[in-house]
Amino acid sequence: MQTVALGAGVAALLLVGLVGPNGSMARAQAQSADTGNPLAVVMRGLCKADEIFALAIHGGAVFARSDHGPKAAIVQQSLTEARAVLASGARAIDVVEAVIAGMENSGVFNAGKGAIANKAGVVEMDASIMEGRLHKAGAVASVKAVRNPISAARLVMDETRHVMMVGPDADKFVRENSGAVADVSYFHYGGQNFSDVPLPDDIRIMPPDEDIAKNKAAFSGAWAGVWVGISLKHVLVVEKIEPHGAKVVHAYGPNPSFGEGLHRRFTAIFVGGGLQVTEPSDLGGFITTYRLNPDDTLTATAAKKNSAEVYETTFRRLADLSVGDEGGTVGAVVRDRCGDLAAGTSTGGFGSKTPGRVGDSPIIGAGTYADNKTAAISATGHGELFMRHVVAYAITAAMKYKGLSLEKAATGLIKHELPPKGLRGGVIAVDRDGNVTMPYNTEGMVRGTTSNDLAPVVEVY
Question: Does this model's pTM top 0.90?
Answer without folding.
Answer: no
